[in-house]
């Protein structure tokens, strides 16, 4: 009897142990499955981020190569060369992550190396005083065409990856099948290695006019000598700017940015009025436009009248863009037919009611000031010589433009055509005669974009 009882206890212990072990293994399995799912999700997000970065770098590379087709001075060539090398290095870094498996991406890597090395050789050629030959232009165009094709493919690949239509492995496999660019008949510079090509942010796409992403300084030129107004006075002005009765406007948290402002709201509209001077900083209505009843010309006229009414002027419209029935117009201050691009105001008008629904005056408030035209400027005829011979000049204007170092320069703005009829803006420094900038004009049914 004792033996039977003892055996029974042993059996119960074994069964209990097995059940506990099973439970532990089940929990462990669930935990591991959860970790695997979590890791897979994190890996997918990482892959999507890598493809998105690659798309951005290739887009930048395409942009630089197109501008290089029109560059005609050492200053511009050098700047584009640096930008292109950074984009190439960033793209290569992304490719190294995509190439972690067994699928080779040698063709894309080869293209990135060719583009970077060839443009550096072009830069050295121009720096030594040589002019680019017809063959040079053909090679640059060849690289640009490949970059454009590559950009389209990677952009589409990014889109379908995000939608879940293809896997990361499928995307890499697709990328690996891109055709080779072939060997370029040039001698590459061997003095710059991949290790020396720094990794930096790619240039941004500008949707509403030249220089709109390069206008903010540390201190407002216009407001630094203005007196501060009270919140009650600001409320009165907010009512005038928005058309909302003063009694309905509600004060909310003040704007604490570079330009301090009192902020008010009513329903779907927010108005910010600067503490110094009481200027409109921004007006924003969270509204949707109904069926389009008005044209872009009507919107431009409405926006002009709005700015004139509140003392912003004289302003000249340059480019506009339509989105969901809202027309956003880019205005720049103009004096004596000179465009002052730093003094930028964006006005959005609904095309169903022809009503101002948004205004951004930050560029104007930060940069507006009295400007003196340099006395030692070159003639427009001399400036024209700095424009690439592959471009045909249609017209010109004079303009102040902002530079990356925060300074401004006085330029001749030439509107040009390339051989395919594409419009290009070339800015020539009116003092030194160097190319200061190149902007590509892109037209669509929704308006004009610059890049």
Q: Would you write up a description of this structure?
A:
The chain is α+β, with helices and mostly antiparallel strands and 451 residues long. The chain has 3 domains: 168 residues; 137 residues, TATA-Binding Protein (2-Layer Sandwich); 71 residues, Nuclear Transport Factor 2, Chain: A (Roll). It is 42% helix and 22% strand. It contains 9 helices and 13 strands. Strands 1, 2, 3, 4, 5, 6, 7, 8, 9, 10, 11, 12 and 13 form a 13-stranded mixed beta sheet that branches. A hairpin with a 5-residue loop joins β10 and β11. α3 runs antiparallel to α4. The radius of gyration is 30 Å and the shape is globular. The termini are far apart. About 7% of the residues have low confidence.
Q: What's the structural domain tally?
A: 3
Q: Globular, elongated, flat, extended or rod-shaped: what is the shape?
A: globular
CA gyration radius, whole angstroms: 30 Å
How large is the share of residues in beta strands?
A: 15-25%
> Count of helices?
9
The major sheet is characterized as: 13 strands, mixed
> Topology as H/E string?
HHHHHHEEEEHEEEEHHEEEEE
Helix content: 40-55%
Q: Measure the end-to-end span.
A: 94 Å
> Which assembly state applies to the chains in this document?
single chain
| Model regions low in confidence, pLDDT < 50 over at least 5 residues | 100-104, 183-208
